[in-house]
Design a protein that fits this description.
The complex is a heterodimer.
Chain A (H helix, E strand, L loop, with lengths): L2 E2 L16 H10 L5 H22 L16 H4 L3 E10 L6 E12 L6 H10 L6 E4 L1 H6 L2 E2 L5 H21 L4 E5 L10 H12 L7 E6 L18 E5 L5 H8 L5 E7 L9 H12 L7 E5 L8 H24 L1
Parallel strand pairs in A: 1-10, 3-5, 4-6, 6-7, 7-8, 8-9, 9-10
Antiparallel strand pairs in A: 2-3
Helix pairs in contact in A: 1-2, 2-10, 6-7, 9-10
Chain B lengths: L17 H11 L5 H22 L16 H6 E13 L2 E14 L5 H9 L7 E4 L1 H6 L2 E2 L5 H21 L4 E5 L10 H12 L5 E6 L4 H4 L10 E5 L7 H7 L5 E5 L11 H12 L7 E4 L9 H24 L8
Parallel strand pairs in B: 2-4, 3-5, 5-6, 6-7, 7-8, 8-9
Antiparallel strand pairs in B: 1-2
Helix pairs in contact in B: 1-2, 6-7, 10-11
């Protein structure tokens, strides 16, 4: 009951020499001092480091830290055929950027997008690993479509490709799928299209998998409770910076499992233990402990690595003590 | 302000030469003293000023050889800030994000000495370069102020003090960069209010640089930002923004980004000429200042120089055309 999880990315580098490995390696690659195979081995090594850091912090369901991803969009879109990556655009309201993909031909994904990454992480982790994907709506919304010339057709195609990927990942042992699909909260008027896209995506889901729809960079006003009609098992949301989400959740009973982002992953200010305990109490008035897990509000790459580690350890400690206290009572 | 029609300029930063990059690393490891670093920063600044003069840029910048990052530089000098560990912006680029831990105050002038140093090296105007309060707020962690607004307005006060000192030191152009303004349309009024505090009472020409955002959401509202000129990256978006300006006239001067700073590919003179000519369909010649999309520090030294050269050559060609067509008078 009541588990601790991470979402999407983890800081790729930190302040120590050892933690700077990936940055150094990219610089060496740019200077042609090392080859691509060396860079790939380094990504493996850093993935190993960040997996261990999450486990050491007390996280019970981890991600691979998305060490291989440059951003949420281009890693996946760049592997599909039919996209061309172009100019830099800001990712939502962050100070991070992505290269906008332009769809210029029929989209296909002849090879798996994430199977190798998942297998690598899953093999070295002593705790369960989530497969993290960017949702079809968000990839479609943050790209340009010059081929299908119809947003719905374009997004449905992406849903089909990602659906196939879910099947491939399930075949190699993935059971928990985390979809970051935050663009819905910036384009709430398109919720009907979102529903169609997600229905299509879910038509590929094998039985007995957990599917998390994680929505951040906004609040769920006007989306909840309807969103619960969609075919996913767990609703993830930002309950650290989006204060209105509390009112939203308290307005109507939650019928899904909940992944509550209660630690602010975009500010270094540390949450106090009392603050986090208070949030856990409030959450347990909304869902049962079996249906609740908690996490940071976003991937942790917006924070310096030292802060990220500290925040995760703090969250895990509070949850551990909270669980123990509940068991006693 | 004695500059030709379509003045050429730069957005702010230039790449640091290898000897300076090495020296910054050596300083961080305690292998050299600050005095040595300062000597090399001065040498690099001189080189960039001379290069800009040599190729015929009209309004110069000091190239920010002494700055690491556009926000961190100010945070390091202001009271109330601490500097965090590294966070990533894109690719392999990281910066130390400032953390506000106390009331923000200006302990001493932050850019005046370097402005004076650069201006003494040339008769052409050198721009005073500041980062705007909204961007410093948005790109910092806030552990002290109760709201984003409180922090922004506190910062506006200290940036105003710096702008006044730049003007006193002789700056004819003061650029207050606000790249974060395009991010949250609902906070544009806050950015406008804060810029009003910064530019209040200034007689120098004021400008702001905004980049990498969804301009459709903040246009035409961004024209309310109280500055004389707005500098925009147009190449990165293939000049699509011009369509927006056709629908609603751009009422200020425009800094026209004509080369992509995130690409190794060098634009041809013909491409840049074409971009300026496209802009001339939308703006009056007197409105336009020509420059790169953004700071050139992301490029290698030679790439940056080549891009600047192509800007100057293309602009000269367009100017000739304007004069011979009788669209403008005056000197070239």
């Amino acid at each position: 009951m009541l588990t601790v999880s991470t979402v999407s990315h983890y800081p790729k580098i930190g302040d120590s020499l050892e933690e700077q490995l990936l940055r150094r390696t990219y610089a060496q690659f740019d200077r042609k001092e090392v080859d691509l195979a060396h860079v790939e081995r380094t990504k493996d090594e850093v993935t190993r480091q960040v997996i261990q850091e999450q486990i050491d912090a007390g996280v019970e369901l981890i991600t691979d830290g998305q060490i291989r991803w440059n951003d949420a969009i281009t890693y996946i879109a760049g592997k599909m055929k039919g996209f061309e990556l172009t100019g830099l655009l800001r990712y939502f309201d962050t100070n991070t950027f992505y290269r906008q993909p332009i769809c210029k031909a029929e989209l296909t994904s002849p090879e798996s997008l994430l199977v190798k990454d998942f297998q690598f992480a899953n093999a070295i982790s002593s705790v369960p690993v989530k497969a993290v994907l960017t949702g079809p709506f968000t990839i479609a919304r943050l790209s340009q479509d010059k081929h299908y010339k119809d947003f719905e057709v374009f997004a449905l195609k992406l849903a089909a490709i990602l659906g196939e990927e879910v099947k491939r990942l399930a075949q190699v042992g993935a059971t928990v799928f985390h979809f970051d699909d935050p663009a819905l909260l910036w384009f709430k008027k398109e919720k009907a299209v979102f529903k169609k896209i997600w229905t299509k995506l879910a038509s590929y889901f094998p039985e007995n998998i957990e599917t998390i729809l994680f929505l951040n960079f906004g609040d769920l006003k006007g989306i909840y409770p309807e969103i619960q009609d969609l075919p996913f098992t767990t609703l993830g949301l930002d309950l650290a910076t989006e204060t209105e989400n509390w009112e939203v959740l308290e307005s109507t009973p939650c019928t899904k499992k909940l992944l509550a982002g209660i630690v602010d992953a975009r500010n270094t200010k540390m949450e106090t233990e009392e603050e986090l305990q208070g949030k856990l109490e409030k959450l347990l008035a909304i869902v049962s402990p079996e249906n609740l897990s908690v996490s940071p509000s976003h991937g942790l790459e917006f924070l310096p690595r030292a802060s990220a580690k500290k925040k995760l350890a703090n969250l895990a400690k509070v949850v551990r003590e909270f669980r123990e206290a509940k068991v006693k009572t | 302000m004695n500059v030709p029609i379509l003045p050429t300029t730069s957005v702010g930063s230039f790449p640091k030469p290898d000897y300076l990059k090495k020296a910054r690393l050596q300083l961080s490891r305690g292998e050299i003293k600050e005095k040595k670093l300062r000597e090399l920063e001065e040498r690099a600044t001189k080189d960039w000023i001379h290069f800009q003069e040599e190729i015929g840029i009209d309004i110069l910048v000091d190239g920010e050889m002494y700055r690491g990052d556009m926000v961190t530089y100010f945070a390091e000098t202001l009271k109330g800030f601490e500097i965090s560990g590294l966070v990533r912006s894109y690719g392999n680029r990281y910066y130390r994000k400032p953390v506000v831990v106390d009331e923000v105050k200006r302990a001493k002038p932050m850019t005046i000495e370097w402005f004076q140093f650069a201006q003494r090296l040339t008769k052409k105007p050198v721009k005073g370069m500041l980062t705007g309060p909204y961007t410093i707020m948005d790109w910092s962690f806030n552990e002290y102020y109760g709201s984003r607004r409180d922090l922004t307005l506190a910062l506006a006060g200290v940036i105003h003090e710096e702008a006044v000192d730049l003007e006193k030191a002789g700056a004819q152009y003061i650029q207050i960069d606000e790249p974060a303004v395009s991010v949250r349309p609902e906070e544009l009024p806050l950015a406008v209010e804060a810029m009003g505090v910064v530019t209040k009472g200034l007689k120098a020409k004021t400008l702001t640089h905004i980049c990498y955002g969804d301009f459709e959401k903040i246009y035409p509202g961004m024209l309310d930002i109280p500055v004389d000129q707005i500098d925009l990256e147009l190449s990165n978006s293939s000049f699509n923004l011009l369509e927006l300006f056709k629908k609603h006239p751009f009422t200020k001067e425009i800094g026209l980004g004509v080369v992509d700073v995130h690409s190794h590919v060098l634009e041809t003179k013909a491409q840049v000429v074409d971009r300026i000519e496209k802009a001339l369909e939308v703006f009056r010649p007197e409105q336009i200042y020509v420059d790169p999309d953004c700071g050139l520090k992301t490029r290698e030294v030679q790439e940056a120089k080549d891009k600047l050269r192509v800007i100057v050559e293309a602009t000269k060609e367009v100017r000739k055309g304007l004069v011979s067509a009788g669209s403008v008078g005056g000197k070239l």
